Each structure stands twice: as structure tokens, then as C-alpha cells.
Amino acid sequence: MSKIKAEIWGREFELPIIVKKFSGEDSTETQKEAVERFKNNLQLINAAKPEVVKYILENGLKDNGITVVDNIFKYVIPKTISVPQVKERVVAVMCDFKFDMENGLAIVFENEKFKEVGYQDLVL
Asked: Is residue 113 within 8 Å of 100, Cβ to Cβ?
């Protein structure tokens, strides 16, 4: 299993890459290209931070009367990079999420552009 070293929101991470594939099959060309392009555009993760903060506020903090995320790592910890078997180049940063440990949080990128933040089920 390969890994990506990346600085995410000011902290260094080494995240395993999990490529989803059917048993006995190799990664698709689209998946391989998605990983390579993502490795060359790691700044996408940092650029998505405002959307992640918005998600944290809307899905946990506002319920507790908190309106500012002072330390994102209190709530979200990146754990893996997931590459589903789909037609487009999709890569998701899979994270633990303090307010939903069961479903976690996925930061999804499609064709090297931010797509959405939501439950990990978006890409599982």
C-alpha cells in the first residue's frame, strides 16, 4: 500500500492510499491518473479548508453554541486517501470527525477540483 506525505492545514501527515477495486482486478487507468494528479495538486486539500470549517460548524459546533473553529484538529483528523472505482478522477480525504465518529467525514475532489464535504459514504 502506498502513502502520500502531505502538509494539511499546517500539520504533516503520511496517509495511506486505498484504491477501491473488485477482487482480482488491478486499479483502473482513471484511478491511477487520479492518484498521480492528486499527488501533484496537494494544495487542493488546504484550499478546501473553508468548506471543511463550514461543515464542522453546521454539523456539530453550532449545536453547542460555538461559531468559530479555533483548531480544526480538535474536530477533524485526516486518516486515509480513498480512490473509488468510478468514471471520473475522484479522490477523497477520509477523516475522523468528532461529531460523527460512525460516519466520519470525506473531503471529495473530482477531476482535481473540490466537490463536497460530507459523510464517508459519499465515496465508500
From this structure: no
